[in-house]
Write a structure and sequence with these properties.
This protein is 19% helix and 34% strand. It is of the alpha+beta class. It has one domain: at5g01610, DUF538 DOMAIN. Strands 1, 2, 3, 4, 5, 6, 7, 8 and 9 form a 9-stranded antiparallel sheet that branches. The chain is globular. The chain starts with a helix and ends in a 35-residue tail after the last strand. The N terminus and C terminus are likely disordered.
């Protein structure tokens, strides 16, 4: 009678332990304030909301590691001033820290004839430094106060906001 009771107890423990969330899952769900937006999270890290196009439907943030993801219902692409073509996959990933998005995945810019990944965005005072690894460009933070829209960028409803160039910019598209 002792062996069946022991095996039944072990089975119950195993079933209960599998139905309870693991500590890592609890950690992943407890650090996100569902009332905040991905755009507000950028602000918390001293980054402008306009780094993300409109339409983010979800995000995740692990405040321990800084791992950050933003999700759209589909891909998003647009041009800025007709020469900067940007493309966002349906999910972008990276690591967020004070004034920086690093190890980015899912954001590309057309550089001459090819698409290259933007891998790092770093705030330096009133400027944002964008890096594609082999090249970089600096833009004023003021250029990112407004979120671009998929398809039309900043030139929606006939209004065209200019993106001011800070230094020689290698992010030039050949269209």
């Amino acid at each position: 009678m002792g062996l069946p009771l022991l095996s039944t107890t072990l089975c119950l423990i195993l079933m209960l332990s599998q139905s309870l969330p693991s500590s890592s899952l609890l950690q992943e769900t407890n650090f996100i304030d569902q009332n905040r937006t991905a755009y507000e999270i950028l602000g918390d890290y001293d980054l402008p909301k306009g780094l993300l196009p409109q339409g983010v439907v979800g995000y995740s943030l692990d405040t321990t590691t800084g791992k950050f993801s933003a999700i759209w219902n589909g891909t998003c692409s647009f041009s800025l001033e007709g020469s900067y073509k940007l493309s966002y996959k349906s999910t972008i990933n990276g690591y967020i820290s004070k004034g920086r998005l690093s190890r980015l995945e899912g954001v590309s810019v057309k550089l001459f004839f090819i698409w290259v990944d933007i891998i790092d965005v770093k705030r330096n005072g009133d400027d944002l430094e964008f890096s594609v690894g082999i090249a970089g460009a600096d833009f004023s933070v003021d250029n990112f106060e407004v979120c671009p829209q998929c398809g039309c960028g900043l030139n929606c409803d006939g209004e065209n906001r200019k993106v001011s160039k800070i230094r020689s910019n290698l992010f030039v598209s050949s269209s």
